[in-house]
Amino acid sequence: MQNYSRYASMNQERQQQINRSLVINLLRQEKLCSRADLAKLSGLKRATITNIINEFMEYDLVVEEGILDGAKGRRSIGIRINGQKYRTIGVMITRQYYSIGMLGLSGEVYKTRTYQIEQGRKPDRVIEEMKNSIQRMISEEQGSQVLAMGIAVPGPYERCGDKMIFVTNLEGWDGIEIAMYMKRDFDIPVFVENDANAGACAQLWFRKGQLGQQNLVYVVAGQGIGCGIILSGELQKGSIGISGEIGHTSIDYQGPECECGNRGCLEKYCSSIAIMNYVRERLKKGESSMLNMDSDFSDFKEAVRAGDTLAKEEYRKACEFLAVGVVNLINQINPGTVVIGDVLTEVEPEMLLEVVRERIKKTVRPMIWRYLTIELNQLEYNPIMIGAGVIAAQEVFENPISYMEK
Length: 406
Ligand SMILES: [Zn+2]
Hints:
This protein is of the alpha/beta class. The chain has three domains: 5-81, Orthogonal Bundle (Arc Repressor Mutant, subunit A), CATH 1.10.10.10; 86-200 and 384-403, Nucleotidyltransferase, domain 5 (2-Layer Sandwich); 207-378, 2-Layer Sandwich (Nucleotidyltransferase, domain 5), CATH 3.30.420. Helices cover 43% and strands 20% of the residues. The protein has helices at 5-30, 35-42, 46-58, 123-140, 178-185, 195-205, 267-270, 272-284, 297-305, 309-333, 343-347, 349-363, 366-370, 383-396; strands spanning 32-34, 62-69, 75-81, 86-93, 97-103, 109-116, 145-153, 157-158, 163-164, 190-194, 216-221, 225-231, 234-235, 337-341, 373-376. The strands form four sheets. The chain has a five-stranded mixed sheet with strand order 6-5-4-7-10, sandwiched between helices. α8 (272-284) packs antiparallel against α10 (309-333), α9 crosses α10 and α10 (309-333) crosses α12 (349-363). The radius of gyration is 23 Å and the shape is globular. 38% of the residues are buried. The model has no long low-confidence stretch (mean pLDDT 89). Zinc ion binds at residues 248, 258, 260, 262, 265. Residues 248, 258, 260, 262, 265 line the site of zinc ion.
């Protein structure tokens, strides 16, 4: 008869990993808990919680803090994650700049810096500079250990090949294996995710526990249009990791050709790049505006706010188009919450929200509208950068102590 005891011990070890992961994630979420709270929330026995907490304390992962009032007047010691000891790095790459954040295990931002990407600069040069900037930030962080790095990239990220694929308006980055570049120089796990997916994870993370938030989409309306989809609390990645590319869903099959091969892609109508193209077309025709052919999107933002007619018209039109795309998304996946973020929402947030809400209300079934919340990103720091760090922490905490130093 075969000896199964080896499997029994493997299962036991796996079960311990799951329990540790559950407890650490509860602490990341709840911030401060007693051992009794953890037992109640996790469904684990008190003795198991005590063992796990002892183990975490050996690694300085958690510390005791204060006395909490519990049920029946019982008082107990609070446990929280040791914010001083462990960090993650969250990196957000856009078509024009990249941001690096030194983050806590619960997504708190300790430090963040942004660097411009010079136009036409080769990806390997940019990545080299990025590595130096990350190295500098890590070396400034005395007394703490960086556990993992999360990188959010614009455009789709192909999970199987571990590489970026077709990023519109970012030349030379197709096929870049960014995780491999990073792993060469950093002795920590590196996780790469598409920007909208990372943003959606951050939105979910800061809303956990709120009902109706488990089916959420985060729409990134910037130089490209994309979205991260969370269903039943889980990020939906798709078979090769490129779900949520609403920027390349067509809203006019006879519309302009897109680099992706499709026609009339949403992105061609309401990304910040598309808006500036429309503005330039109208200026070429001699229409008057405070904008000129060299104006960029921040000039456009100023012009809308200053009441420039042409700019305001183009902004309203882009908001309408965005709403058309969001309606398609709503009808496909029936989310409870749609959060919209990135540069488009920063121009005139109230106007965007009003136009988008009105259009959606008019074009979806009343029942859908009744159970739908449409809002703008409320996070203080960029959700994509935070999300990159949140993903890194989540991945590491699948098996917490294997990455830590005693
Ligand atoms: Zn397209």
